[in-house]
Amino acid sequence: MQNPISLYSAKRRLLLRASATGVLGMFLGGKQAFGHPNHPPQEAAAQAVGHSPRRGLIDLHSHWFSPRTIELLSARSTPPRFTTGADGQLRLQRPGASAEQGFPIGSQWFDIDARIAHLDTWGVRHQLISWPTTMGFDPVLSAAESTPLWRAFNDDLAVLVRRHPTRFSGVATLSSSDIAWSVRELERAHDELGFIGGVLPVNGFASLEGAERFRPLFEVAQRRRSHIYLHTGYAHPTVPGQPPQHQHKDTAAIRGTLDTSWSFASAAITLAFSDFLRPYPDVTVQIAMLGGSGAIALVAEQAALNAERLGIGNVREHFRQIWFDTGAAGRGAQGITLAVRVLGVDRIVFGTDYAPAASVEPVIKEIEHAILTENERERIFGGNARELLAAHGVKLAG
Questions:
Q1: For residues 165 and 295, what is the distance between their CA atoms, to the nearest angstrom?
Q2: For the segment 261-316, what is each residue's pLDDT rounded down to a tens digit?
């Protein structure tokens, strides 16, 4: 079978030569984009060396680039956009980056059949798919530019979920620049698209002042019993109270981990220790990356030690509407162990960041290495997510 990247590149060159926008859509709208509707179990793959002995895992942190979003972003002349290099590699040119610095896009980003085969190999039965807010589109695009992109992604994701209802669930991409549009889109997500909620950039909740900007959205979320996913990234600059964008002059990659921890832990503090969520008891909130590589567990531990002085009561009660996933910077075994001990195992769900991550294997191995009981591992790998999804109408057999 021809490499999906090479095939994509050939089709894109044909598109450019023919100036026919339909060619790309035809290619990406086929089998690779949405997968075979009756994809068979990958029994042979599951017997291969390096497979997971576990079955029934539920991954609540994964991403996808849909056919229409690839088409729309490939048609742009300025970042953010997709480009194809001389080597045939599809790349995402982010704002502020040159074409040569583009983020490589492997086939796992769009080939659904390959995704399902990989998930079968590692025992993952179900994924929650969201737009990768990490890419930083919302802060740099106007609402007029971004909302057609978000709507196209949401429409495509709805097709995918309808085609594979037992394999995938979805949350709608929402705008932080046009809250009124997001209110309408969240309604549409429940009424028409079959989604369980929406995804927003986590830095929009780094302060109560910023969270207040999203209150109209949470009013709808309460009425619709939505699941709100907070994932990496900045909100639009019109959202106040966001963390500064550091330009580190040394050890930037390591310092970036600390920045990420601060961002996620700050959002968790906003939602857990303010009264923001009080009017919305039926909204569930998922925060990616274990609340900042497990940093929120360290904060919560200190809060618990000083609970009487702070007047906050039982610290775990503050997190009863919040779940933390193990994707990306949340995958470390020691951080997972600490989060379970401090926050409780019922707050932790399995997430892999699949698509930026080409394999779910590393996270599975870290959870296996964490100092947990077998029951705690089973809760993280699937039990907690199964209950959470069931509360939003997605019923998966035990």
A1: 34
A2: 999 999 999 999 999 999 999 999 999 999 999 999 999 999 999 999 999 999 99
CA–CA distance, 46 with 380 (Å, rounded to integer) = 21
Please name each of the domains of the chain with its CATH number: 58-67+108-391 (3.20.20.140)
Burial (Cβ within 10 Å: 0-12, 13-18, ≥19) of residue 23: middle
CA distance 58 to 127: 6
Q: Are 371 and 79 in contact (CB under 8 A)?
A: no
- For residues 360 and 352, the answer to whether their CB atoms sit within 8 Å is yes
Q: What is the mean pLDDT of the chain?
A: 89
Q: How far apart, in whole angstroms, are the C-alpha atoms of residue 230 and residue 174?
A: 11
167 CB-side CA count, 13 A: 25
CA nearest to 145, candidates 80, 63, 240: 80
Question: DSSP assignment of 126-146, as one string?
Answer: EEEEE--GGG--TTTS-HHHH
d(CA 107, CA 113): 10
Helix H or strand E encompassing 230: strand 227-231
Which ranges of 22-177 does DSSP label H, i.e. alpha helix?
Answer: 22-28, 31-34, 43-46, 67-74, 112-121, 143-163
